[in-house]
Amino acid sequence: MAARAAAWAGRSLTRLEVGLQVIDLIGFGAKGWGGVLLLAALMTVLVTLAAMAVGAVLGALVAAAKLHPNALLRVLGEGYTTVFRGIPELLVIYLFFYGGSALVSSVGGLFGAEGFISMPAFLVGALAVGVVSGAYQAEVYRGAFQAVSRSELEAAKAIGMPLMLRFRRIIAPQILRFALPGIGGVWQISLKDSALISVTGLVELMRASRVAAASTGQFVLFFMTGCALYLVLTGISNLVLSRAELRVGRTFRRS
Amino acid sequence: MSVDIAFIGDTLVQLLHALPITLLLFAASVAVGTLLALLVVWLRVCDVAALRHLARGYIFLFRGSPLLIQMFLLYYGLSQFPEVRQSPFWPVLREPLSCAVIALALCTAGYMAEIFRGGLLAVPPQQIEAGRAAGMSGWLLARRIIIPIALRSCLPAYSTEIILMMKATSLASLVTVYEVSGVAQRIIAETYRTLEVFLCAALIYLVLNFLIVRALAWLERRLSPRHPVLACPTTKKYALSVPRG
Amino acid sequence: MTTGNDPVLQVKHIRKSFGNLEVLKGISLEAHEGDVVSILGASGSGKSTFLRCINLLEVPDAGEIRVAGEQVAFKRGRHHLQVPADRRQVDRMRPELGMVFQSFGLWSHMTVLQNVIEGPLHVQKRPRAECIDEAEALLEKVGMADKRNHYPAFLSGGQQQRVAIARTLAMRPRVILFDEPTSALDPELVGEVLKVMRSLAEEGRTMLVVTHEMGFARNVSNRVVFMHQGVIEAQGTPQEMFNEQHSERFSRFILSHA
Q: Residue B170: its chain A contacts at CB < 8 A?
């Protein structure tokens, strides 16, 4: 009886020890990786924001091209979206990483620098994920534009509103309202795609988790922590986006 | 800059050698993932609240985190435990290919379950009621009315997911599976001829996507209601073979 | 089997509430074979709910339902709400009470013919050749035989509703329940559906029709029931209700809905 109690106490103590070790590892102490992971999560958010910005510009241009009367522009736009939605993001990252570095190296060579200069990982990541998200964003903007009410536009024309004013006061706000859900979706996709940027060496959340896991041997612990942090990021994004959707849709009735 | 046909040809051959692996990853993960998704969505809509929450948690987990971290978790995580290494499944689990397939399947099941659920929610309630009024219920109602309509509703979203899966197979290269992207990366790292290799690999994926899109479009056409005079006749189970008197 | 004078349908003291709102406050109705009963009333009077309680698409909180002598069994279920005791009994009885819906409810993934044979084939398990033959005859009767291979999406509202009627008839019901069958139709299409309903009445079918079509109520039905706020305010023959004006409220109702 006493022996059983002792054995149980021994096991609980071991579990407690393991638990403390875990907290130690993911915590913020000397051995703790908590700070690193949180910073890496911040990096993930930053690189995704940069990518979305790149994608927004590209997406708007491509959407305009696809809606243009000029057939060549439409074909080019169509080609862009087909290619960058159809090939793996990893290939695009390799293109910018290896290709970009080669470009930078040869440009550097022109200026007398020797050897291989690699392109900054953040730039590679933002461009690669940005180019891909641009293809998705283009589709969102195109759909949003086509959803803008023709009759409202015509009413604006009828009262003599010039083009720029029409764009600013009628078209753009409506495009934003219709595009918001879609862009929210692209944000979530890009957030997860950013994990692939880890192959360039950028210390975002995926890479940090991997480094922590490899150096401590605690693969499950750190990958699960990284996973949990990603879930926190996507969860917060969800909340923010739903709120935003509600606010933007405030003045419109559900049709 | 001259176009090195020989290099491109050689690269294509090397990439095509890896194509069967890509196709295997794709087919296996889509098949397993679809079956798993059917189970998850069944749990998601069943009467037991605990099972519903379990399914919701599964879907949240696998849709909220990147596939890559799930794959690493599986591949590296499993080898961490001696219990797993000594289990009878180990010869399968230690293979990067099987790990990749399992990770892909688990991830896509989360997305597909939501897609199937969307299909179920889109079934017009009037048609379900008409089924009930005719005396159908339970499995008969599901089999004859709810599931066929739900499937047709979710086909476009399901097709999109299938295409995403084809792209997702490239992640297997990061756990040492030599499929097309993995071979492409190896060639680039060796020869530094990024653009040519990229174009070859991109071409292969684009052709694959094109074929998949066509196949799915054909399926969608087959399943959707068509005008009988304008479309070609199809063989139906209830073919009117009764002779007109 | 009912003997000559037993009612085909007997409904007693049906009560139904949705939350705090009591929609049906104790309704009783009887229908004998061949009766064509029109149920009229303002929106919110509970007429659709009443009809849907009969074939248990809504479950009444209290009351009895008897179809061809067989009583529907109830029991106390979750949260002390009344539920049907035997699901199989419900599945068996529903085809006896065929229902035609306001929104037709044709199955979109099946052709017209497939819609009509679905019930007989899969629910009543009759042989396929027999189902097809009967379906063809019924489609002929409602005037939709040439559209047998069309899908519902390609038909007009009136055409869809006629197919829906054929679909209901294919199950060989004892009573046919019509829930505002023409309310969702464009005015030009209402006539073709009413024509079919009239021919069914002339055949001697037992029909319960919730409707706003005064012409039908007056000329085709042999009994008119007026519902108001969850009770039967007045009932009688069309002559009594329309010409002799037994109920003042009903007269006001007719005037506002003419």
A: 88-91
CA distance A48 to A42: 10
* Cα→Cα distances B167→B8, B71, B154, B174, C2, Å: 22, 15, 20, 13, 67
Taking any CB pair shorter than 8 Å as contact, residues of chain B touching chain C are: 124, 126-127, 129-138, 140, 144-145, 148-149, 152, 223, 225-228, 236, 238, 240, 242
Cα–Cα distances in Å, from B124 out to B134, C34, C106, C122, C150?
16, 34, 10, 21, 19
How far is it, in rounded angstroms, from Cα A86 to Cα B212? 11
For residue B240, list its beta bridge partners: none
Chains that touch A (3 or more CB pairs under 8 A): B
Residue A96 exposure: Cα atoms within 13 Å on the Cβ side: 21
At B211, the amino acid letter reads: L
8 Å CB contact of B73 and A218: no
User: Which pLDDT value is given to residue C1?
Assistant: 47
Residue C35 structure tokens: 């009766």
For C153, phi and psi rounded to 5 degrees? -60, -25
Rounded to the nearest 10 degrees, what angle do helices A34-67 and A219-248 cross at? 40
pLDDT at position B245 = 36
pLDDT above 60: residue A207? yes
Average per-residue pLDDT in chain A?
Answer: 86
Q: Give the distance from residue C92's alpha carbon to the nearest chain B alpha carbon, in angstroms.
A: 6
- Location of structure tokens 């071979």: B183
Tens of pLDDT along B206-234?
Answer: 999 999 999 999 998 888 887 766 654 54
- Residue B121, H or E segment: helix B96-121
Q: What share of chain C is helix, strand, coil (3-state, %, to 5)?
A: 40, 25, 35
Report residue B121 as tokens. 């929610």
Give pLDDT < 70 ranges for chain C.
1-5, 258
Q: What does the angle CA A134 – CA A136 – CA A140 come to, to the nearest 5 degrees?
A: 105
**What's this model's pTM, rounded to 2 decimal places?**
0.83
Record the tokens describing residue A219, joined without a space.
């693969």
- Give CA–CA dist A149/A168, Å, rounded: 15
Contact C149 B228 (CB under 8 A): yes
Q: Note whether C101 contacts B: Cβ–Cβ < 8 A.
A: yes
Residue with tokens 């849907």: C52
Find chain C residues with C-beta within 8 A of B148's C-beta: 109
- What's the full length of chain A, in residues? 255
Model pLDDT for residues B53-99, shown as the tens digit of each residue: 999 999 999 999 999 999 999 999 888 887 777 888 888 888 899 99
Q: B167 touching A, CB under 8 A? A: yes
- Record the tokens describing residue B135, joined without a space: 């005396």
Encoding tokens for residue C138? Answer: 């019924």
Which residues are registered as beta bridge partners of B221?
none
Q: Is A27 helix (H, G, I), strand (E, B) or coil?
A: coil
Instruction: Specify whether the CB–CB gap between C228 and C42 falls below 8 A.
Output: yes
pLDDT at A102: 79
AA letter at C190: V
- B134 and C118 within 8 Å at the Cβ level: the answer is yes
SS3 string of B48-99? CHHHHHHHHHHHHHHHHCCHHHHHHHHHHHHCCCHHHHHCCCHHHHCCHHHH
- Please give the ipTM for the structure prediction: 0.84
Cβ–Cβ under 8 Å, residues C139 and C165 = no
Q: What angle do CA C147, C150, C155 make, to 5 degrees?
A: 80
Q: How far apart are CA A199 and CA B173, in angstroms?
A: 11
Q: Residue C124 in 3-state DSSP?
A: coil
Neighbours of C62 (CB within 10 A): 14
Please tell me which of the candidates B124, B135, B225 has its beta carbon nearest to residue C151.
B225
- Residue C104's H or E segment, with its range, is none
Are B77 and A235 an interchain contact pair (Cβ–Cβ within 8 Å)? no
pLDDT(B25) > 50? yes
